[in-house]
Amino acid sequence: MKEIITIANQKGGVGKTTTAVNLAAALAIAEKKVLLIDFDPQANATSSLGFYKSDYEFNIYHTLIGAKNIEDVILNTTIETLDLIPSNIGLVAIEKELDNLKDRELTLKKVLKPIEDKYDYIIIDSPPTLGTITINALCASNSIIIPIQCEFFALEGLAQLLNTIKLVKRTKNPELKIKGIIPTMYTSQNNLAKQVLSDLVRHFGPKMFVDMKSEKKRYIVIPRNVRLAEAPSFGKPVALYDIKSKGAQAYNKLAENILGVDNG
Ligand SMILES: Nc1ncnc2c1ncn2[C@@H]1O[C@H](COP(=O)(O)OP(=O)(O)O)[C@@H](O)[C@H]1O
Ligand SMILES: [Mg+2]
């Protein structure tokens, strides 16, 4: 079954792009057919996979305004089963372009229709806002993964995000589910990080991802890991940059959980 997952949190710098890129890569390495959509005008997911402005002429924006077919903006990546739809700073204009359109929230959903059955997973990286772009992503998705940085103010803004999800469910996409919460940049030596993690478990226990290969119940956390921060500058997901790193292993576990859940 194909599944469309948006990675969202309106806070910036919490690990959305890192999660989108590395989860997409881990699923693709597990031989699933995966499409990563960069849906942030900052285009960090695009550059994380080694693509720069001069490498592609068209991006997701051109499909949303109807200037290009979706098939024409897909790029192949170095992982055979991973495709990318790039973004570009020009995407900021979309908020205005769609402003007067009826059902503007469903624009991405409509645009994806012709290709969605070609993939096992479509992963959407979203910008740090709850505006038209993120709403479009949520309307096009089956589920959302929320990365939460294990630091002070981690839970700030979460209520607003949860309300937005409820609103989208009620009005446009009744099927939308919270697939899970993934704690990011976790440092076990840091007491505050431990506190944030235990708060998350208390509030969202059943929505936390668990390690499918551990006999004891163990929640998956993404550690703070320098390899994860370095990999984008080499234009690679961490699995191709340093497969043995703690960061690569953590995203692999997240992918295993998603595949396990998917297999029932
Ligand atoms: N687990 C991690 N360990 C170390 N650095 C990380 C980790 N996750 C993200 N980063 C770094 O933190 C910064 C913000 O992450 P990013 O994924 O771009 O967040 P967002 O997309 O939510 O703005 C980036 O420089 C990224 O490389
Ligand atoms: Mg980002």
Description:
- With 264 residues, the chain is of the alpha/beta class.
- The chain contains eleven helices and seven strands.
- The chain has helices at 16-29, 44-48, 60-64, 94-98, 107-112, 132-140, 158-171, 191-204, 226-230, 238-241, 246-262; strands spanning 3-7, 34-38, 75-76, 82-85, 121-125, 143-149, 177-184.
- A seven-stranded mixed beta sheet has the order 3-4-2-5-1-6-7, sandwiched between helices.
- Strand 3 and strand 4 form a beta hairpin.
- Helix 1 (16-29) packs across helix 11.
- The structure holds adenosine-5'-diphosphate and magnesium ion.
- Adenosine-5'-diphosphate (ADP) is lined by residues 12-18, 44, 128, 184-185, 222, 224-225, 228-229, 247.
Specify the structural class.
Answer: alpha/beta
Cα-atom Rg, whole angstroms? 17 Å
Q: Which percent range describes the beta-strand content?
A: 5-15%
Helix content: 25-40%
> What is the number of E strands?
7
Hetero groups in this structure are:
adenosine-5'-diphosphate, magnesium ion
